[in-house]
UniProtKB/TrEMBL annotation:
<comment type="similarity">
    <text>Belongs to the zinc-containing alcohol dehydrogenase family.</text>
</comment>
<dbReference type="InterPro" id="IPR011032">
    <property type="entry name" value="GroES-like_sf"/>
</dbReference>
<dbReference type="InterPro" id="IPR013149">
    <property type="entry name" value="ADH-like_C"/>
</dbReference>
<dbReference type="InterPro" id="IPR050129">
    <property type="entry name" value="Zn_alcohol_dh"/>
</dbReference>
<dbReference type="InterPro" id="IPR013154">
    <property type="entry name" value="ADH-like_N"/>
</dbReference>
<dbReference type="InterPro" id="IPR020843">
    <property type="entry name" value="ER"/>
</dbReference>
<dbReference type="Pfam" id="PF08240">
    <property type="entry name" value="ADH_N"/>
</dbReference>
<keyword id="KW-0862">Zinc</keyword>
<dbReference type="InterPro" id="IPR002328">
    <property type="entry name" value="ADH_Zn_CS"/>
</dbReference>
<dbReference type="InterPro" id="IPR036291">
    <property type="entry name" value="NAD(P)-bd_dom_sf"/>
</dbReference>
<feature type="domain" description="Enoyl reductase (ER)">
    <location>
        <begin position="8"/>
        <end position="343"/>
    </location>
</feature>
<dbReference type="Pfam" id="PF00107">
    <property type="entry name" value="ADH_zinc_N"/>
</dbReference>
<protein>
    <submittedName>
        <fullName>Galactitol-1-phosphate 5-dehydrogenase</fullName>
    </submittedName>
</protein>
<keyword id="KW-0479">Metal-binding</keyword>
<keyword id="KW-0560">Oxidoreductase</keyword>
Length: 345
């Protein structure tokens, strides 16, 4: 089969590789229909994340069941599915408690196990979820990032009627806007330095948009007639991780979803906001809970089926998988603007 294999820093190759085979009774082989680039793929491409040399890349996908092991019963050949790419040990203390996102051995496919930038991918049956009939393959390829966002919101104490600020309007931030509405937010503030992203944020229901490159963030926040109950950091920028602490009201919450790929240096005035405003700062990792892979996954599929979670406006590029090497190069070296990129093997 054809696949995108990562060999070294910025060395991604479209090439022939071995197709997966049924080896265990609970194996499921899936013919990949759609697979998206995640921000963590970009960092791994730049050698800021683990992988084995020559590993088939990618972890967000949807597809059609091609073959199944003898003990697989909840999906059948021909079913439309998505897959949870997280591999957990099911044996450590945290797994035994059902805290799978805290598994001591957690990794995702595309690093130590072949990923989904390929014609076919293999997962254990417990990682495979059947799609509702009205959820298309593009949407299903984004169940994983949606589950990651949902996991964070489940960790908050957010109540209906809350005001939520989202800092960073990439895919995670745009999904966070939609999850804010599902959790009952009455007012949603979207913050970014890219007006194009803010336009998309408005299509997803942001009530207020702030371009913090063009206007003073503190002044813009002061004009909004609501206290911010929950501030979500979804950019992973060393700058915004400090800045987001200035947003919530006293006693409010900060949800950290963005992954920084450099050291964080925080201004004293930002750190003091945690203390003086008695903020609850919540870290969130991956999108797993019990029963595995968790309510984040079933809830995402439900809300995609109802139309409360939409992904189409996020997707800027729909490309053949063979375009992978040049696309990653263009993203990393900023040769073209991209929103969400979807590949079709």
């Amino acid at each position: 089969m054809k696949a995108l294999n990562l060999y070294h820093t910025e060395d991604l190759r479209y090439e022939d590789t071995s197709s997966p085979q049924i080896m265990a009774a609970d194996d499921v082989i899936i013919k990949v229909v759609a697979t998206g680039i995640c921000g963590s793929d970009i960092s791994r491409y730049k050698k800021l994340g683990p992988y084995q040399t020559g590993m088939t890349f990618g972890h967000e996908f949807s597809g059609i069941v091609e073959s199944i092991g003898s003990q697989v019963t909840h999906v059948q050949i021909g079913d439309a599915v998505t897959g949870c790419p997280a591999i957990v040990c099911h044996a450590c203390e945290q797994c035994e408690k059902g805290n799978y996102s805290r598994c001591a051995q957690l990794f995702v496919i595309g690093s130590y196990q072949p990923g989904c930038f390929a014609e076919y991918v293999k997962l254990s049956a417990s990682n495979v979820l059947k799609l509702p009939e009205n959820v298309d393959f593009d949407a299903a390829a984004m169940v994983e990032p949606s589950a990651v966002v949902a996991h964070g919101f489940y960790r908050t104490s957010m109540k209906p009627g809350a005001t939520v600020a989202i800092m960073g309007c990439g895919s995670i931030g745009l999904l966070a806007i939609q999850w804010s509405k599902i959790f009952g937010a009455a007012n949603i503030i979207a913050i970014d330095i890219d007006s194009h992203k803010l336009d998309i944020a408005q299509t997803f229901g942001a009530d207020y948009v702030i371009n913090s490159k063009n206007e003073n963030l503190d002044a813009a926040i002061a004009r909004i007639p609501f206290n911010i109950d929950v501030a979500v950091e979804s950019a992973g920028s060393p700058f915004t991780i400090g800045q987001v602490l200035t947003l919530p009201t006293k006693g409010g919450e900060v949800l950290l979803l963005g992954i920084p790929y450099s050291d964080i240096e925080m201004e004293r005035i930002h750190f003091e906001k945690i203390l003086r405003n008695e903020l609850n700062v919540i870290g969130s990792w991956n999108g797993l809970s019990a029963p595995f892979p968790g309510e984040e996954w079933s809830a995402t599929l439900h809300y995609m089926s109802t139309g409360d979670i939409k992904v189409a406006p996020m997707i800027s590029d729909r490309l053949e998988l063979k375009k992978g090497p040049e696309t990653f190069d263009a993203i990393v070296h900023k040769k073209k603007h991209f929103d969400k990129v979807m590949f079709y093997p």
